[in-house]
Write a structure and sequence with these properties.
Largest sheet: none
Distance between the termini: 27 Å
Strand content: under 5%
Low-confidence stretches: none
Order of helices and strands: HHHHHHHHHH
Number of strands: 0
Number of domains: 1
Helix content: over 70%
Length: 246
C-alpha cells in the first residue's frame, strides 16, 4: 500500500463525509470521481457503498424527529426497486459510459434548477417513488445516488432541515440494501485491497463532526446554493473522469 494513496483516500473521504453531513447527500458524488483517480473505479464504488453505511449510522440518530416517515418509506421502496437492475448493469455497460451519461444529465438538471425552473408535481407519491427508483438505479451501478433525490426535493421546495433529515434516513436505509445488492451481484469481490479502509473510516468520523458544526450556519438560501454546487461539481468530475477513460 502506497502511503500517499492512503492519505489521499482519507482526505477524499473526509471531504465527502463533510459535505454529506452538511447537506444530507454528496458523499458518493464528491468522493467517487476523486477516488477513481487513485484506484480502480469499481473499488471506489464498493468502498463508497460500505462507508455510506458507516456515515449514516453516525448521523441518523442526530436527525431523529426531523424527517418525514412517509417520504422516507416511499423513496426507499423506489430505491430498492431501482437498485436491483442497477446492480446488474455493471456487467453489461461500462462505468465510463454510465459516468458520461449521468454527468451530462446532472449538468442539464442543475442548470435548470439554478434558473429557478421547477416541474409541478401532481402526484407526490409517484414522484417520490420515481426519484427513489433513479436514486437506487444509479446508486447501485455508480455509487452516486443523491442527485435524483436532491433535485426532486429542491423542486418541491422542501425545508432544509427536513430535506437533510429525509436524505440521511433514506440513504441510511438504502445503504445497507446497496451493499447487499452488490454482494448478490458479485461486485464486492472486485476489491483487491481493503487496507484503504485504515484511513477512510477515521476520516468519515472527522467529516461528520466538521459537517455538523457547519450546518448550524446555513440558512435556506445558502443550503439550496450549496446543494446545487455539490451536484454541479460532482457532475463535472464524473463527466471528466468518463471522458478521460474513453
Amino acid at each position: 500500500m502506497d502511503l500517499s494513496n492512503l492519505f489521499m483516500a482519507g482526505l477524499i473521504i473526509f471531504l465527502g463525509s463533510f459535505f454529506a453531513t452538511v447537506s444530507g447527500f454528496g458523499f458518493a458524488l464528491v468522493a467517487t470521481p476523486l477516488l477513481g483517480l487513485i484506484m480502480p473505479l469499481k473499488w471506489a464504488i464498493i468502498f463508497i457503498l460500505v462507508l455510506t453505511v458507516v456515515l449514516r449510522i453516525l448521523t441518523m440518530y442526530q436527525v431523529w424527529g426531523e424527517f418525514n416517515w412517509r417520504t422516507v418509506i416511499l423513496t426507499s421502496i423506489g430505491s430498492f426497486i431501482g437498485m436491483l437492475p442497477g446492480s446488474k448493469v455493471l456487467h453489461f455497460i461500462s462505468i465510463t459510459h454510465l459516468q458520461i451519461f449521468l454527468g451530462i444529465v446532472l449538468l442539464a438538471a442543475t442548470a435548470l434548477m439554478s434558473l429557478q425552473y421547477t416541474v409541478p408535481i401532481k402526484n407526490k407519491t409517484a414522484g417520490r417513488l420515481g426519484a427513489g427508483f433513479l436514486s437506487g438505479f444509479f446508486g447501485a451501478c455508480t455509487s452516486v445516488s443523491g442527485p435524483p433525490l436532491v433535485l426532486y426535493f429542491l423542486n418541491e421546495h422542501t425545508d432544509k432541515t427536513e430535506m437533510r433529515a429525509n436524505m440521511i434516513w433514506i440513504f441510511g436505509v438504502t445503504g445497507i440494501l446497496f451493499v447487499g445488492a452488490s454482494y448478490w451481484a458479485g461486485n464486492i469481490a472486485a476489491v483487491g485491497d481493503w487496507s484503504y479502509l485504515y484511513s477512510m473510516i477515521p476520516a468519515t468520523f472527522l467529516g461528520v463532526l466538521a459537517g455538523e458544526r457547519m450546518f448550524r450556519y446555513l440558512n435556506q438560501q445558502l443550503f439550496r446554493r450549496l446543494s446545487l454546487l455539490i451536484v454541479l461539481v460532482g457532475a463535472v468530475m464524473m463527466l471528466f473522469n468518463g471522458l478521460r477513460e474513453l
